[in-house]
Specification:
heterodimer, A: alpha+beta, Aldehyde Oxidoreductase, domain 3, Aldehyde Oxidoreductase, domain 4, 3 domains, 7-stranded mixed beta sheet, 6-stranded mixed beta sheet, 20 helices, 32 strands, B: alpha+beta, Uridine Diphospho-n-acetylenolpyruvylglucosamine Reductase, domain 2, Enolase-like, domain 1, 12 helices, 12 strands, about 20% strand
């Protein structure tokens, strides 16, 4: 047992003494699992839908402030070196220009605290911003223009002239590898694991596959451009941001400007897509610095090109997967190793080995991510970092092995289904992948697949089917906290510094709060998206559902405790413990004697103010240290490959998921489908054109960087097991990222089945499929 | 965007007067020019809006079609005579851009749209002879998957992005021009220049010359013509390659044929060599392959676009084969 586990057990024991019957990590399951009010799982429409359709939901770039000026950025065009000269005189003389900021006149600022180095650190890199003349990547912003209008700022920025003293740079993965690699570290843990002698087991195995898979760089393309509208009043800074971490961002900006956390107010009620990219990058800092310098409110909206130059994306990977197996298919060896490009100023080595750690039983394991250092924009999190591209390689290799042995690929996976976590040895909290495959295969019609490639042709089109396993872990990060106010009219108001980026969080959590308190949804208001609210809840890692859910459990418990204190001898609830009662029909009742009921109106009538406010924090996330907690999915694809042109069209897709209990059937289905659509892009078209001669991104636009259009997306069928996870709040494990995992492999496997071509480097464009 | 003046032309005479003697650009739907203005790649001092100029589509007694240059792409694609007599043009236009863009874009503007070479667009970070003559070309040894395999030069390998023009050159379209010095006509095949040593010179238009109309001569066998576009996604992407084709077969012998390629060259590419190789020959797969080879034997693929040679070959052969089988009452895959 590790020290962490020992500490965990001690903390849990203490927590269990305080509240023996409540949901806790490792305690009893959340009562909402067993009682399951009708609202849990209901396909409620998004509560903010009408606001968004009417254009009433205001996004970060839509706040108009008195006297506001507009910013435009100017970017370097060399990957490494120093600024030799920067001539801003023409820009300064241009109409409407308020000021031009460079390293020569920017206020003193500290580097952003780098993501994951401290609890609230959320900076994309830890480089100086406008503090010196050094260039670290091609596209680094080196000047900012403020003007009365956006057009004036854009025009003036085009008049800036810079020259550089270029220094030798490393701008390709191969060149970087040649200079030597370092072991990848993810969240402080090495991305390296060996169990047994996998290389020897591979050589001894009667069946083996051993190939290298490559994935390119990807850029973030949320439909809402990154933006910050900022103003200072005295020493207080307000940032209207597009953020998936308001509390993190406020704290991190405070460090940059040497302020107290409370002096920075980050507000982000609506976000037009995050995917891991809406964290802290240079643009919020530059907007705040320029605003300080000018003494005016500033709006800085990155252009689409600006997002490619300033905001990191997913890095490139080169992955070896080798599987050694017996004739019955059982794995003797699972090897998943390889290289990622990263920079010297960030810390996200795309952890592509994560699926290999939890998906299959094997006699031996060898997993390793090595980092090669490239002079480029810092890479970052992008939907299912690690699992998205790692599952492409692993699940392609499993399909290759199935063909070699002559076993159905689903059967091969079932034969290697682990009884406990294959690399940690922890018991599964809830794992129903086989059930997901069974129901998915039946609905999809997997039985009609001919395992021989090129066996089905319709005109020019070769038709094939493929499948792959999706996987994403359950996360619940520390720091959940909530403020909850119940009033005697039976309305509850909850505040958490959480986020709505279009996923449906605010709707799903309103359902959860209503269900837990026994109130109708229209008596619940869920406020979120401001750093002044309680909690430190990152909208990342598919963890908001669990984080907010556990926080609501804690706040509700605090509330019920206070309500029960208000009961007099004649109250039917008098003397009951918080764990004896549940919320129902606008009040509390005893769980096993529902007639012992008192309404919130009656309970709160005993207070002077008629309302009660509590604040509470979620218990530490120890459940994941005791159980192996992962979601899984079975992905099925039917694809058509044109035998003349190599064009690929996906004709059917089905995802069958095991993600615990589903909170909202409508928004969850959209999350799964959205993930799968992003997975289609990953498989077939997304690729940052990175010019390896100088590290410049050459396709910084939605015209040239392809994501799927409607015609690329077929009907996507979604199933789920809805089997609750007894160790997760509400029994739910989160649904945001899993859809992108497994998808690319299911497509690649279907393409192989259609045309007999195995493509191991993404994206699978038609040139890789024609002779 | 750089400052410019704006004037809306009342008629063609007014337009050419307004544009005379300045660094003026004619503005059609603006679906390309406005992007280029925003990127500061175009810096005209004046814009002359010609969207109010003739846009009628006129069927003339000699069987030709005269299309006013201000006609929108949508209007042309949906016109009954175009759909029935020149279906390759309808298909080409419909394969381009999006419905919204086609509703804005004009015929004249489509012809004069500029390349989508990423190095051309990256004025802040890349060299481009088309944008800055003599600067050099970063595409030739760079990411050039989308670039030309035919007609390029050591100065430039950018492709012309239009779908519509590929059909128009196959149909032998003639462009009507006017300037303050008078009017003239020019076959569309002779309007665009190959880059040679001056890729910034993209057409043979004279200063101030305005495209007033496009004339499509009668071509009876074009009623079965087609256009096939191959691209990286199902919609809203420029052609990797495309083929416009019409074929007239009598007693299994090819009487006449029209072939043009898109996405492979700095201009819409009339496949004269392939056409010559086919005329008078039996309409067989083998002859289609020989003809494709005749056109593509001069191809000079670059690092990333070698696949275009085989792709153009295969697509041309498949398109001709499908047209012939369709005429013979066979099934069209």
């Amino acid at each position: 047992m590790s020290i962490v586990q020992k500490i965990g057990q001690t903390v849990m024991k203490k927590a269990a003494e305080l509240a023996p019957d409540a949901w806790l990590p490792g305690g009893k399951p959340d009562p909402l699992i067993e009682h399951r009010p009708a609202l849990i799982g209901a396909p409620e429409s998004r509560l903010d839908g009408p606001q968004k359709v009417r254009g009433e939901a205001r996004f970060a770039a839509e706040y108009a402030l008195d006297g506001m000026v507009y910013a435009a950025l100017f970017y370097s065009n060399v990957p490494k070196g120093r600024i030799a000269s920067i001539d801003t005189s023409a820009a300064e003389a241009s109409p409407g220009v308020v000021l031009v900021m460079t390293h020569r006149n920017a206020p003193p600022m500290k580097p952003m605290p780098l993501f994951m180095t401290q609890p609230k650190a959320t900076g994309g890199n830890d480089l100086p911003i406008f503090q010196d003349d050094e260039i670290h990547w091609n596209g680094q912003p080196i000047a900012l223009v403020l003007a009365q209008t956006q057009e004036q700022a854009d025009y003036a920025s085009s008049l800036i002239l810079a020259t550089y003293l270029a220094e030798p740079s490393v701008t390709s993965l191969s060149a970087a590898k040649a200079k030597g690699t370092t072991p990848g570290l993810f969240q402080g843990e090495p991305l390296k694991l060996e169990i047994g002698d996998a290389e020897a087991a591979l050589l001894a195995a009667p069946h083996r596959v051993d190939s290298v898979y490559r994935t390119p760089r990807h850029n973030h393309n949320a439909i809402e451009l990154h933006a910050a509208t900022v103003f200072w009043s005295d020493d207080e800074l307000t940032v209207h941001d597009a953020s998936q971490g308001v509390a993190h961002t406020a704290w991190s900006i405070a460090q940059v400007f040497d302020l107290k956390e409370e002096q920075v107010h980050v507000k982000s009620p609506f976000v037009g897509g995050g995917f891991g990219g809406k964290t802290l990058w240079a643009h919020q800092i530059l907007a705040a610095a320029a605003s300080k310098l000018a003494g005016l409110p500033v709006r800085l909206v990155l252009s689409r090109e600006g997002v490619y130059r300033v905001v990191g994306g997913r890095t490139t990977t080169e992955q070896r997967v080798a599987l050694g197996a017996q004739s019955d298919g059982t794995f003797d060896a699972l090897i998943h190793t390889g290289f990622v490009a990263m920079t010297a100023h960030n810390a996200l080595p795309e952890p592509f080995i994560l699926p290999a750690r939890c998906t299959y039983a094997a006699g031996s394991f060898k997993l390793d991510v090595e980092v090669a250092t490239v002079d480029m924009l810092a890479n970052t999190f992008m939907r299912a970092p690690g699992e998205s591209v790692g599952s492409f390689a692993l699940e392609s290799a499993v399909d290759e092995l199935a063909e070699q042995i002559g076993i159905d690929p689903i059967e091969l996976r079932i034969r290697n289904e682990p009884e406990k976590d294959p690399t940690t040895g922890r018991p599964h909290s809830s794992r129903n992948l086989v059930e997901a495959y069974r129901s998915g295969a039946e609905k999809f019609g997997w039985g009609e697949r001919n395992s021989a490639p090129r066996s089905r042709q319709e005109g020019e089109w070769l038709v094939g089917m493929g499948c792959a396993t999706a996987t994403y872990p359950y996360h619940r990060m520390p720091g959940g906290a909530a403020r909850m106010t119940l009033s005697k009219d039976g309305r509850v108001h909850v505040e958490i510094a959480a986020h709505e980026m279009g996923m449906g969080t605010s709707t799903a959590q309103t359902q959860v709060i209503a269900a837990r308190l026994g109130l109708p949804m229209d008596h619940v208001t869920f406020a979120y998206g401001e750093s002044s609210m309680p909690g430190m809840v990152l909208a990342g890692g598919s963890q908001q559902t669990a984080s907010i859910g556990s926080t609501i459990i804690a706040a509700n418990r605090a509330l019920v405790t206070e309500l029960l204190k208000l009961t007099s001898h004649d109250s039917p609830l008098h003397g009951l413990d918080p764990d004896d009662v549940i919320g129902r029909d606008g009040g509390l009742c005893k769980i096993d004697e529902p007639e012992r009921f008192e309404s919130y109106a009656t309970l709160l009538g005993r207070t002077e103010t008629g309302e009660l406010t509590v604040e509470a924090s979620a218990p530490p996330p120890l459940e994941a240290q005791h159980w192996s907690m992962h979601s899984f999915g079975a992905m099925f694809c039917e694809v058509r490959v044109n035998s003349v042109t190599g064009e690929v069209r996906i004709s059917r897709f089905l995802g069958s998921f095991d993600c615990g209990r589903i909170i909202n059937a409508k928004t969850a289905a959209s999350q799964f489908q959205g993930g799968i659509i992003m997975g289609i892009g990953l498989a077939l078209m997304e690729e940052t054109q990175f010019d390896e001669r100088n590290g410049r991104i050459m396709n910084p636009s939605l015209a040239e960087y392809h994501v799927p259009v409607h015609m690329d997306v077929p009907e996507i069928d979604i199933l789920w097991t809805d089997i609750p996870d007894p160790h997760a709040p509400m029994g739910a494990r989160g649904v945001g990222e899993i859809g992108i995992t497994g998808t690319a492999a299911a497509i690649a496997n279907a393409i192989y089945n259609a045309c007999g071509k195995r493509v191991r480097d993404l994206p699978i464009t038609l040139d890789k499929l024609i002779d | 965007m750089n400052p410019f003046t704006y004037a809306r032309a009342a008629d063609v005479d007014d337009a050419v007067q307004l544009a005379a003697g300045s660094q003026a650009k004619y503005l059609g739907g603006g679906t390309n020019l406005v992007d280029l203005l925003r990127e500061t790649l175009e810096r005209p001092t004046a814009l002359v809006d010609v969207t109010g100029l003739p846009s009628a589509i006129e069927e003339r007694s000699d069987g030709s079609l005269l299309i006013g240059a201000a006609a929108t792409n949508t209007a042309v694609a949906e016109h009954h005579s175009v759909r029935t007599r020149f279906p390759m043009l309808t298909r080409a236009i419909s394969a381009g851009a999006s419905a919204q863009i086609r509703n804005m874009a004009t015929v004249g503007g489509n012809i004069l749209q500029r390349t989508r070479c990423n190095y051309f667009y990256d004025h802040a970070g890349s060299r481009c002879n088309k944008r800055s003559p003599g600067q050099g070309c970063d595409a030739i040894e760079g990411a050039n998957r989308n670039h030309a395999i035919l007609g390029g030069s050591p100065s430039c390998v950018a492709t012309h992005p239009s779908d519509m023009c590929v059909a128009l050159v196959a149909l032998g379209a003639v462009v009507h021009l006017q300037s303050t010095r008078g009017t003239r006509t020019l076959p569309l095949t002779d309007l665009h220049r190959l880059p040679e040593t001056s890729p910034d010179q993209e057409t043979f238009l004279k200063p101030g010359e305005l495209i007033t109309a496009v004339e499509i001569p009668a071509l009876p066998f074009a009623s079965d013509s087609t256009y096939r576009k191959v691209r990286d996604r199902a919609s809203y992407a420029f052609a990797l390659i495309s083929v416009a084709a019409a074929i007239d077969v009598k007693d299994d012998i090819i009487q006449d044929v029209r072939l043009a390629f898109g996405g492979v060259a700095p201009k819409p590419w009339r496949a004269w060599n392939a056409e010559a190789a086919l005329k008078g020959k039996p309409a067989t797969l083998e002859n289609f392959c020989v003809a494709a080879e005749a056109e593509l034997s001069d191809a000079s693929p670059l690092r990333d676009n070698g696949f275009k040679v085989a792709l153009t070959n295969r697509t041309m052969v498949a398109v001709l084969d499908a047209l012939v089988r369709e005429k013979n009452g066979g099934s069209n895959p």
